[in-house]
Design a protein that fits this description.
The structure holds two protein chains of two kinds. By secondary structure, chain A is an all-beta fold. Helices cover 0% and strands 53% of the residues of chain A. Chain B has strands at residues 4-6, 10-13, 19-25, 31-38, 42-49, 56-57, 64-70, 73-78, 87-94, 104-105, 109-113. The mean pLDDT of chain B is 93. The chains are: A mainly beta, B mainly beta.
Chain lengths: 115, 114
């Protein structure tokens, strides 16, 4: 199956700085790459996703980039705020048009934003 | 908004007990999933189901079974709980199909096996 590696496992930044989390995947057939944010005591929530036909996607302060050749994708958070503190998971899946939306997750990054 | 409800937030069981973790979703989703979350290991898929009475093994199915008798309900069963099954268990659902891969997670059940 797919193998998704995520780095770093922990990341501390000062409020207002940028944060970058990187993931690599192994299966070149993967074509859907979501990012989930998990706040303390809650289940993960989708924050942004990208498909393999797009190189970059932005939503306000967050952006995701994808390099299909190198098989890696990254999450960028600009102007970080304390409420961005959470665990972030990257994931990959192979969309074959079926209902089996099975995701392969990275191990997570604990982001801490210091005021 | 989609709601995925897990029956218990915290659960304490004894070694050897049969344990049932229940999950209900209210948006008529086709797919349902059970994940296990451990520090440093991320989210590992135990079982998933893409239809009533259908089930597929994930990456770590050993020691677990599942039941999906109704579309909205997906149960995880620990046949004989062991201490190494102490973990956070997360249920999720999705509509399925291209463009509908988004997973909606419950808040999790923290299971302790003593």
């Amino acid at each position: 199956g797919e193998n998704v590696e995520q780095h770093p496992s922990t990341l501390s930044v000062q409020e207002g700085d940028s944060a970058v989390i990187k993931c690599t995947y192994s299966d070149s057939a993967s074509n859907y790459f979501p990012w989930y944010k998990q706040e303390l005591g809650k289940g993960p929530q989708l924050i942004i996703d990208i498909r393999s036909n797009v190189g970059e996607k932005k939503d306000q302060r967050i952006a995701v980039t994808l390099n299909k050749t190198a098989k890696h994708f990254s999450l960028h958070i600009t102007e970080t705020q304390p409420e961005d503190s959470a665990v972030y998971f990257c994931a990959a899946s192979i969309d074959r048009g079926s209902t089996l939306g099975r995701l392969y997750f990275g191990r997570g990054t604990q982001l801490t934003v210091w005021p | 908004d989609v709601k995925v409800t897990q029956s218990s937030r915290y659960l304490v069981k004894r070694t050897g007990e049969k344990v049932f973790l229940e999950c209900v979703q209210d948006m008529d989703h086709e797919n349902m999933f059970w994940y296990r979350q451990d520090p440093g290991l991320g989210l590992r898929l135990i079982y998933f189901s893409y239809d009533v009475k259908m089930k597929e093994k994930g990456d770590i199915p050993e020691g677990y079974s599942v039941s999906r008798e109704k579309k909205e309900r997906f149960s995880l069963i620990l046949e004989s709980a062991s201490t190494n099954q102490t973990s956070m268990y997360l249920c999720a659902s999705s509509l399925g199909g291209t463009g509908d891969e988004k997973l909606f997670f419950g808040s999790g059940t923290q299971l302790s096996v003593l």
